[in-house]
């Protein structure tokens, strides 16, 4: 059972500080969420990026604790049982979750906290925290999305087919979100996210 808290906090540590807010960034696999997120954090180091926990293996160049916390399925299931996640979901055969305590502490301290998560988790956050801002990243076309997923060269054909099937379902959910941004031109998409966060 998820605890429902007002996620736009009135807690402030000084009179100039704005209240914290939770922001959810989602979209289908391969749409470029991670790349957009990295650029956003480089430009705005004041943002708090919540590092997700996952049971999948690290991809080349990924660092434990920076890109994800990589743990075993049994450890993940133990954390679920202990209520340690704000949201969690299974995607492409792996678990993904957002650590609860760190996120809530950052929001309550006045930070803009960004979660880059899968659709199922994003829906959980929307249900638990109706005050959260939700942004859905769309591909310019489904053909382009397939090219991007295949271009990674990291998945088996079976995994690619599964991701593409899932992506078709995810794109249909875009209207559930506050803001939709098409990642056609990277810089344009990034500016649209900045406009949503800092308007």
Automatic annotation (TrEMBL):
SUPFAM superfamilies: P-loop containing nucleoside triphosphate hydrolases
Residues reported in the UniProt entry to bind ATP: 27-34
Polar residues composition-biased segments: 1-19
InterPro entries: GK/Ca_channel_bsu, Guanylate_kin-like_dom, Guanylate_kinase, Guanylate_kinase_CS, P-loop_NTPase
Molecular function GO terms recorded: ATP binding; GMP kinase activity
GO cellular component: cytosol
Annotated family: Belongs to the guanylate kinase family.
NCBIfam families: guanyl_kin (TIGR03263)
Function recorded in the entry: Essential for recycling GMP and indirectly, cGMP.
Protein name in UniProt: Guanylate kinase
Organism of provenance: Amazonocrinis nigriterrae CENA67
């Amino acid at each position: 059972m998820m605890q429902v808290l007002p996620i736009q906090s009135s807690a402030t540590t000084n009179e100039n500080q704005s209240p914290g807010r939770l922001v959810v960034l989602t979209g289908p696999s391969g749409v470029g969420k991670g790349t957009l997120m990295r650029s956003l954090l480089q430009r705005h180091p004041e943002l708090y990026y919540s590092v997700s926990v996952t049971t999948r293996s690290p991809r080349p160049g990924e660092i434990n604790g920076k890109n994800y916390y990589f743990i075993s399925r049994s450890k993940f299931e133990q954390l679920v049982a202990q209520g340690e996640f704000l949201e969690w979901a299974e995607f492409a055969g792996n678990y993904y979750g957002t650590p609860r305590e760190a996120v809530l502490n950052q929001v309550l301290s006045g930070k803009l906290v960004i979660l880059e998560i899968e659709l199922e988790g994003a829906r959980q956050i929307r249900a638990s925290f109706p005050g959260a801002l939700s942004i859905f990243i769309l591909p310019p076309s489904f053909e382009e999305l397939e090219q991007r997923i295949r271009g990674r060269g990291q998945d088996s054909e079976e995994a690619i087919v599964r991701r593409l099937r899932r992506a078709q379902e995810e794109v249909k959910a875009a209207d559930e979100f506050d803001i939709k941004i098409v990642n056609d031109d990277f810089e344009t998409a990034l500016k649209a996210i900045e406009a949503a966060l800092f308007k």
